[in-house]
Amino acid sequence: MKVAAVSNNGTSISAHFGKARYFVVLTIEAGKIANREVIDREAVVETPIQSGTNGRALNVINQHSHEHEHDSKNHTGNGKHHNIEPIAGCEAVLSRGMGMGMLQRLEQANIRAILTDVMSIDEAVEAYLGGKLANHPDLVH
């Protein structure tokens, strides 16, 4: 099973899905995190390739850690931050807030959006796996 989170630093959950720099995709095996991929959402390019990712190539980076926030000036308006293809196949995605449009896109893609008040990705995933992570629909904006 795979669970994703949106993040600006690879370790904490972003307060806004659309402004997050990274997807953190966690592979869960035997109830524990077995693998962690940090995908730079700005590096997801629409490059035709021969197989595997529906015509897109993904730039995947390892445990990247730098701390900074992104605001609207960092977004090019070309839809890169609305691309959910890198998390296709994930059971759920964790965020501390998102817009209604993104919530609907995730639902259409059969990805459960969990809006949480937990900051730490690892703590949130542990709570999710234990069935104890509260979903806060009031965090839709």
TrEMBL record:
Location of the Dinitrogenase iron-molybdenum cofactor biosynthesis domain: 10-129
InterPro entries reported for this sequence: Di-Nase_FeMo-co_biosynth, DiNase_FeMo-co_biosyn_sf, NifX/NifY_domain
Region spans: Disordered: 64-83
Keywords attached to this entry: Plasmid
Matches recorded under Pfam families: Nitro_FeMo-Co
Bias (Basic and acidic residues) ranges: 64-74
Alphabetical list of Gene3D superfamilies matching this protein: Dinitrogenase iron-molybdenum cofactor biosynthesis domain (3.30.420.130)
Coiled coil regions in record: none
UniProt name for this protein: NifB/NifX family molybdenum-iron cluster-binding protein
Organism: Candidatus Chlorohelix allophototropha
